[in-house]
Specification:
This protein is of the alpha/beta class and 196 residues long. The protein contains 5 helices and 6 strands, in the order ααβααββββαβ.
């Protein structure tokens, strides 16, 4: 009998992991924690921006969870699903609505990082340049009435935009037609043009 044959057989347990499995589990957990940390960081950033906007005179700045259906709470006063509430607790709030800035407001740069902003009312402000809004993919409603905006080209990639109001802004008919072609599902409200 060889020495190997004399050794007792070790019974394998059901809770046995190889190093490869352990490495995969640790890597998966690290990725999940990194994603949560990134979302928390974004939440803290948006909270700071919300405070800045209020200090600049915005009358309404509303926040919600990153997966909240804001229409539920805003229009119907219904509660969110349980998992949306848990996601909000874990990942933090996002600014989804900003309205009522003072007339002197003209710099949209602080808004560029608001990833979940859906509703932005800049009516009557001194805004001229819409470039900071170009990457705001969540934006659905935008009011630019009585602003100094004349170039709508930064908005052409905002495929979720449902409504744009440029009443009283110096926007040409050609600009509106170009934007309407790029965003056929967006309703654009504007001042009547000469000869219309």
């Amino acid at each position: 009998m060889t020495p190997m044959e004399t050794l007792p057989k070790i019974r394998r347990g059901w809770f046995r992991f190889s190093l490869r499995t352990l490495l995969a589990l640790v890597t998966g957990a690290a990725i999940a924690l990194a994603l949560v940390a990134n979302q928390r960081h974004q939440s803290q950033y948006e909270e700071r921006v919300a405070v800045e906007l209020r200090e600049q005179g915005f009358q309404i700045v509303r926040s919600a969870g990153p997966y909240d259906q804001w229409e539920l709470g805003y229009f119907t006063n219904q509660p969110q699903n349980w998992w949306r509430i848990q996601a909000r607790k874990l990942l933090g709030d996002r600014v989804w609505r900003a309205c009522g800035p003072p007339h002197s407001f003209d710099d949209l740069t602080p808004l560029a990082g608001l990833t979940h902003l859906q509703w932005l009312d800049l009516d009557g402000t001194s805004v001229k340049d819409l470039t900071p809004l170009a990457k705001m993919k969540s934006l659905e409603w935008l009011w630019l009435s009585r602003t100094q905006v004349s170039d709508l080209s930064p908005l052409v990639r905002l495929k979720n935009l449902k409504s744009l109001d440029v009443w009283g802004a110096p926007v040409s008919q050609a600009e509106i037609e170009k934007l309407q072609e790029a965003l056929p599902n967006c309703k654009i409200n504007h001042s009547p043009f000469e000869g219309s």
